[in-house]
Amino acid sequence: MTTNTLSPPTTDRVLAMIRGELSTPRRWFYRAVLLAASVMTAAILSLWMTEPGPLPLRLHVAFGALSLIGSAWIGVLTWILWRRRCPTALDQIATGWVATGACALFLVVAVVTAVTRGDQQAAIWLGLIGMSFLSVAVMMLCRAYAWREELRRKLAELEGKVTVP
Amino acid sequence: MQPVEQSDAVIAVRCQLGDPAAWEVLVVRWQPRLWGFIARMVADEQTAEDVLQTVWLEVVRSLVRLNDPERLAAWLYGIARRRIADRYRAAYRRLPMEEFNDVAMLDESIEQSDRTEWLALSMDRLHPTDREAVLLHYYQELPIQEVAEICGVPSGTIKSRLFRARQILRQVLEG
Q1: Residue A137 in contact with residue A103, Cβ under 8 Å?
Q2: Inter-residue contact A148 to A93 (CB < 8 Å)
Q3: What's the CA gap between A86 and A101, in Å, rounded?
Q4: What is the pLDDT of residue A5?
Q5: What is the torsional sign of CA A130, A135, A138, A139?
Q6: Which of B114, B117, B142 is nearest to B37 (CA)?
Q7: Would the CB atoms of B39 and A21 count as touching at under 8 Å?
Q8: Which of residues 126-145 of A touch B (CB under 8 A)?
Q9: How confident is the model at residue B12 (pLDDT cuts 50, 70, 90)?
Q10: How confident is residue B2, by pLDDT bands cut at 50, 70 and 90?
């Protein structure tokens, strides 16, 4: 039997759940972890690439595994923040800024570490990797701003439809 | 002066922009409509409430991906329909077939004096796909084209589902 004679449940529970989803602390936590993961990955990669002497195989494996874990964290957190935990245009802009910051940090940490250790070739390679990350992040940020503008234009258009008789 | 009531599309865009007041309007406006659809499609009140909660969670998490805010109604009913289908699938997996049929059987002890209630209860005799077509077209007053879009089938299929449903309901009312 279906529940066809019941009245709808109150909106309190749904509104509380939506407020929870829209609340920012959890997203800022993810953003902070994204920043930390970027710095860690940059440091590990630059240390690995600027090692002066030949490394034993097990150290290569360890550096490789750590870099992979760091990159996976960056990927997963970016996906969570961009696709799963991004309910509004404002959140996309905030995430875009954090991603840009994270990539800039990656670039600075990686290049500075390589330069400090006197390995120019590694500095160039890490700089190129960092720059490509940064350009993707800047593209995300631009898209977020463009989307907000589009929404504002759409809203003005829709409100115009209502007010103009 | 009475404030002009905002359209669903305006509310959707305001939600996408991150206006918390718009979310409140969206929930207050759509909770009864979604409930009207979900509660008539699933077996019991608790399940209906769970489905409703799941639908809202999906709405809040994926509203950013709604490209055309003027299609909000179709988009919301589409989500509700998918979540209901999940429940049906789970029920089919869990129950032996004869038991599942019992769930859909009409409760004989129900008073048959109220014609409207009787009609509503007769909906249980319909196949779920026919029932959702009736609910979306007659109860939620959506045009056939939009119902077809929500259900992902051609308009002709919705018309034949409505025709079949009307025949069954007529038989129930006359019998």
Answers
A1: yes
A2: yes
A3: 18
A4: 52
A5: negative
A6: B142
A7: no
A8: none
A9: very high
A10: very low
